[in-house]
Structure formats: C-alpha cells, structure tokens
Predict the structure.
Amino acid sequence: MIAPEPQTAPRPGFTPALAFAFEVRALLGPSLHIGHGGGETTEYVPITGGTVNGPRLRGTVLAGGGDWCDRRHGVYQLDARYLLQADDGAVIDITNRGYHHEDDPSTPAQYDGTLQVSEAGVYYRTAPVFRTDAPAHLWLARTVFIGLARGDDSEVAIRFYSVT
C-alpha cells in the first residue's frame, strides 16, 4: 500500500520575473523576395551591422546575418541568425525566432520606464538562443531570454530580458 502524500499548507504563487540585460539595434538591408505560395510569402532581410548596449553586454552586431521571414495571413514568423561581438572581442552566435503581427487591438502599448518598447495593437516578440565558448559570456548560453522588438524597414531594436 502506498502511503498518502503529506499535506502541506498552500504557498503563494510564483510568477517569473524579467530583468533587462541589453538592447540590440540591428541595421537592415533591403528585403529580398524568396517565394510564395498557398497564402504564404517568404523574404530574407540582411543584417548589415549595429550595436549592443546594456548593463550585461556591450558590443556590435556583425554584418552578414539575416532574418528569414514567412508571412501568413498578416502574421510574420521570424527566424533570424546573426553574430554579436562583445567589447572584449568574444563572438556570440544568436538564433532569434519570434512573431510579429498588428491585428490585436487589445494589446496595450508597453513601456520599460519611459521607453516605449511596443506599440498598442502590435505583438512583436522573440525567443533568442545564444552560443559562445567565451567564459565571460557563458551566462548567455545558460539563460532563457525574451525579446521585445520594435523597428522599421531600416533598423530593428530588440530589448532582451532574462527570465529570473
């Protein structure tokens, strides 16, 4: 016979928190049309450079990466891959996937302090994964992040927050 589970008092709920780590400002080249069919359009947007600034990481965005973007019914599925170079010279690989759509009027504008990080009605979120073997930056490859993005045809800014 299995003994019953001991009864414990209910504990307060846990809600994960976010801590701002850094912001990437990636410069974008003109998009290239790849193809379409069945209600889908695929484009490639080259990443031509940029900056990384924040309390946990500073550096540059290296030219040569890009974002493969599939659009279906007004929803953009993003799949970006590019390299960051930290101020200490370490190279960091980032794969950044997410979604962008402007069809939800219930989504409020969001702010980080006084900085508006998203517009009302716009959902633009990413889930980055980092790779590096640089000891000073291994924390990136061991942490879950979310990105809040905003931008236009020439630049995208993504604020990365670690999940604590």
Q: What stands out?
A: The chain has a mean pLDDT of 93. The two ends are 40 Å apart (CA to CA).
